[in-house]
Amino acid sequence: MVLRKAKxxxxxxxxxxxxxxxxxxxxxxxxxxxxxxxxxIAASPPMWWHLTTDLLAEGVHFDLNTASPKSVGYRAAMAxxxxxxxxxxxxxxLLTSLAIPKTLKSAHIYExxxxxxxxxxxxxxxxxxxxxxxxxxxxxxxxxxxxTTAARRALFRHGAHVGDRIYVTGTLGDSLAxxxxxxxxxxxxxxxxxxxxxxQSQRHFLVNRHLHPTARLAEGQWLNNARLATAAIDLSDxxxxxxxHICEESRVGAxxxxxxxxxxxxxxxxxxxxxxxxxxxxxxxxxxxxLLFTVPSKKQSTIERQARARGYRVTCIGTIxxxxxxxxxxxxxxxxxxxxxxxxxxxx
Amino acid sequence: MVLRKAKxxxxxxxxxxxxxxxxxxxxxxxxxxxxxxxxxIAASPPMWWHLTTDLLAEGVHFDLNTASPKSVGYRAAMAxxxxxxxxxxxxxxLLTSLAIPKTLKSAHIYExxxxxxxxxxxxxxxxxxxxxxxxxxxxxxxxxxxxTTAARRALFRHGAHVGDRIYVTGTLGDSLAxxxxxxxxxxxxxxxxxxxxxxQSQRHFLVNRHLHPTARLAEGQWLNNARLATAAIDLSDxxxxxxxHICEESRVGAxxxxxxxxxxxxxxxxxxxxxxxxxxxxxxxxxxxxLLFTVPSKKQSTIERQARARGYRVTCIGTIxxxxxxxxxxxxxxxxxxxxxxxxxxxx
Lengths: 348, 348
Description:
Two copies of one chain form a homodimer. Helices cover 33% and strands 25% of the residues of chain A. By secondary structure, chain A is of the alpha+beta class. Chain A folds into two domains: 13-23 and 46-150, CATH 3.30.1330.10; 165-338, Phosphoribosyl-aminoimidazole Synthetase, Chain A, domain 2, CATH 3.90.650.10. In chain A, the strands form three sheets. A seven-stranded mixed beta sheet of chain A has the order 8-10-7-11-9-12-13, sandwiched between helices. In chain A, helix 1 (13-23) packs parallel to helix 3 (106-122) and helix 2 runs parallel beside helix 6 (217-225). The radius of gyration of chain A is 21 Å and the shape is globular. Chains A and B meet through strand 2, strand 3, helix 2, strand 4 and strand 5 of A and strand 2, strand 3, helix 2, strand 4 and strand 5 of B.
């Protein structure tokens, strides 16, 4: 039986501590950050604390042969920020742990932190703690993110009611299209030359949507503070899978109008060139990090007016139905069928 | 560039969620546990939140060939509970993430959670969230533990003053002796038969101290609430390394009286049989999870009286000296020399 803390097995750990201290300055409510047995936060007004954690494994969640350490760090932070956005919370503090293989250069570890902190800085999040250890096989990255809302004021997955309208922010499917562009895509050889190439700006848009996703924090806080949404989730597993989570937690069904799913011009062009249904990219493509939320039908005009005023893109894509209805989608030709169970197929 | 959430790549994940939900019931201040984008905690009285996180890697921190999954889980939780003990805090909530290789059976994952929750139940800690993913190589376990104290009331590493007496709880070196017994030890062949064998109960005591360490939560809360300690740390890296942390953070030196380090009868017998210095086991052996803390000299009689009344074992082992003194140890023969820089040699 062997279980130990291995805080000092890699020479670079002193460097990592230095990096962390460098990135961890400031924070008003922070009593004690890195350098003690635990980070300490002062909490006084009545509030709710939101805690989310993710463990990312090399070869499963990211591939350092094709991804820069900086982008791995950035996307890891953004995935957690997106969870906090879906609660309608303000992100505050980050704890991050790394298990580092001997083969990884300390410059790469620095770049990984740079990416993490770039995402955090965008949203005023402070690094307050973590742990580092050796790894026998591959890089592992664990992130815990803490956010706050006022007490009794948060968005959950379980509040959707029959008759509520289903909304999403932004456009869907871009991230999967961007990923396929980066990894060589799935174009059958025969079709490659017959169809128009994507423009450079379209390629750039899609790849950037994959590499630099944006957690919808402002939108989440707006929906929460204005009491407009009855339920919310972030789209990390694809519309199909994440809508299912809302339905399961709220014990309802849902009807999606496929033709209304917001698709970017670039994604539509990509789908056309690759003979794909754009809606299919949205249903099965993960990591868009847009918000999926439900709104009482009487608040539809309010939400659309406020969104326009704030410059947020929100689109109504369906309606919450009774549980027995299941989860179905209606095509533009009026045919209705169940949404397949498949979720985003993650890296294999 | 590939970075994704892989929450659904392993069939057992549904099972894991079920396991987590089973273990995650209750918790008064808990608004929302597993099943949403983040766990939510209601915080209202002015208090301090203590957050600690650890990432444990198979082959580095534990070896599933020699350790049962249950003991891996138990010890992982205890290592984090010990950090919370060193802050003088009450442990409250746990988030745990696993990256699981395909080769690991779901029964083993269940056992791992059993071990985790056994340690948590002992101290009223609730599992409130986490993440699961596939792993290409080995099991990785990330734990985040949250504890609380009253506002402006906690033990840090940085409060030690010149003249303070240095104390430890319990006995030191047992865990390393227990580990060496489990892994075959370091006895030179020639000496094995010349010396008395350890008794069965002595072996059992040492192995159990390694396999089932006890985080000193009651002792930490007592030291904090009674305002007796000026600084504290838990002994996870060995007395030598952890005393160094106190000295660095407090900008002081220290003088240890080697003869006063509390050594159990079993550890003394083990050291004698293996021709080791017992103090050496204490200085370099990690994972005792006892508390090391400093006390103003005028409070010495108070602390010793209160400890006796409560049945806590505390031992004065030295004195805080000025920074220029460095960190030195005095042997029973009166010779004084610097404490070597070596820390606990973790699993290689």
